[in-house]
Amino acid sequence: MNNAAEKKLALSHMWVAFAAFIVACFMGEYQVLERSGLFPALESPSVYFASVSTHGVLMAFVLTIFFIMGFGYYTATTSLKQPVWNKPLAWGAFWLALFGVVLAAVPLLSGKASVLYTFYPPIVAHAAFYIGATLLVVGSWVWCVIMLVMFSQWKKANPGQNVPLAMFATAANALLWLWTSAGVALEVLFQLIPFSLGWIDTIDPGLARTLFAWTLHPIVYFWLIPAYTAFYVFVPKQAGGFLFSDEMARMAFVVLVVFALPIGFHHLYMDPEQAKGWKLLHGVGTFVVALPTLVTGFTVIASLEIAGRLRGGKGLFGWIGTLPWTNPMVLAVILALLMLIFGGFGGIVNASYAMNAMIHNTAWVPGHFHLIFAGTTVIMYFAIAYYLWPILVGKPLFSSSMALVQLWTWFIGMSILTTPWHVLGLLGQPRRISTVVYNNLLTLSWKPYELMMILGGLVLLGSACLFIYNLVKTQLTPFSGEFTAEVEYAEPIHAVGVLPEYLNDLKLWNKVIAVLMAISFGFPILQFFFMKTFGSSVWGY
Length: 541
Ligand code: HAS
Ligand code: CU1
What we know:
Layout: H1 4-36, H2 45-80, H3 87-109, E1 123-124, H4 127-157, H5 165-196, H6 205-233, H7 235-238, H8 246-260, H9 276-310, H10 318-322, H11 328-351, H12 353-359, H13 364-393, H14 400-426, H15 441-444, H16 447-476, H17 507-530, E2 539-540
Parallel strand pairs: 1-2
Helix pairs in contact: 1-2, 1-3, 1-13, 1-16, 2-3, 2-4, 2-5, 3-4, 4-5, 5-6, 5-8, 6-8, 6-13, 6-17, 8-9, 9-11, 11-13, 11-14, 13-14, 13-16, 14-16
The structure holds heme-as and copper (I) ion.
Heme-as is lined by residues 118, 216, 220, 223-224, 266-267, 286, 289-290, 293-294, 297, 301, 304, 320, 334, 337-338, 340-341, 344, 347-348, 350-351, 356, 360, 365, 368-369, 372-373, 377.
């Protein structure tokens, strides 16, 4: 199939994603230097908060949304073997989302949207920030629609056949994102935009935080699903083996999507606006959603073991040594799983109410999410890029060994950066601060960890530059030969029979989500309309 147009679409999205990423990496390094207190010349709370807000928005929304859209378009077209439905619409969504990013960047960079990536009121940003973010999200909704249309078109054209796993995962993520983004969309449209434009005088932070919590947990799985997709559909083949179980993979995606949504109150454990019964309900759901990750870990490791044994590995652990560690995808998955052990452990601590009281709003939390998002998730974005770039540009990867050095340094840098954050959190350092200089004995004990953090940041910045350099060189280095590699999807070790409809379609799960959301968020949201609240006035820039 000639899919040159799809390649261009995917490449354009991914370049926006990685351009945002590299800018945000430089800001991250500035932030660790500023916070350390060792460079008085750099110290400026206003610049710090403008930077950390931009960094968070670029990483959490721009890198992820554009990467997921680009990857999704290409996965859909190659796994279904059909062109992207309505390419003009897809390009329209691209430009709309990009325009939204530029619009939001102006107040962000000029210090008029220093509200961090969670933008909790009553701090308020310039309206252009919220409007820009809305356009970005609307662009991503178009992507969701295109994915779901392609999914159902294929099903109609191929009755009784199993949807390819890669497309099942992509469509599940599109459905997840439509549900996920609805919470923050309600908050932005009915609370933040009217408030920032002065149409309403007060805002209810309790309602706003509840709506944001609706989005905040599932968004992290929206970011994670492309990484899991690569675990299942690329890694086994790249390692030289087979996928341990196609059905188990589908089950994991289903549970991940369904249970990611009704559990956001684990971000509100320490908040007063929701009662303890609701927190307990969401807390139980949080432990359920850890299960698909355990299943994923099991399936991926089993697939790696199959590959290792096929390559001659013997004994209990001999297969680990025979894996192709020099294949960037395989190396990345091993490093990603290692970071997942500790990042996931941190998540379980967070989810446990009593322990949450100990670490909530401390440096532990950025430690947790840098390890599991910037670590586990983003290292798989790198691996996918190394795999797809040669295919998309029709030239071999500029340097495989540079890619390996880059993946190792990302892993090492992330470990050096996040270990001290976990410790600092336990030592009581708050998150969201621009300076650690309180001049007392408690903060003296923070110093060595602050130094480690700077070192970790530097290693990561170097690694990020290597990544971008490799992609740019791959694309720009002249290549005269013919390079015809195409995406290869992994085969399951046991042929899959006819799947039950609930593992081959999402309609049932959409209904289950609707019921679970009504139960877990219905009353907690409606209560705000039945009680007298007074609202907060502007606390702005
Ligand atoms: Fe989280 C806060 C709970 C996963 C991201 N999380 C955050 C925030 C972000 C984030 C961004 O309950 C901050 C939000 C903010 O700004 O306020 N999180 C969890 C739990 C999980 C979890 C229970 N988080 C993620 C993922 C993220 C992410 C994934 C991004 C991609 N998180 C929380 C809670 C908070 C929170 C609270 C609020 C904290 C607060 O108070 O503010 C789970 O899904 C994790 C499950 C994972 C495991 C790990 C299993 C390990 C495996 C590896 C096996 C590998 C082996 C090695 C054996 C239980 C599967 C093999 C080796 C070879 C060599 C082959
Ligand atoms: Cu969460």
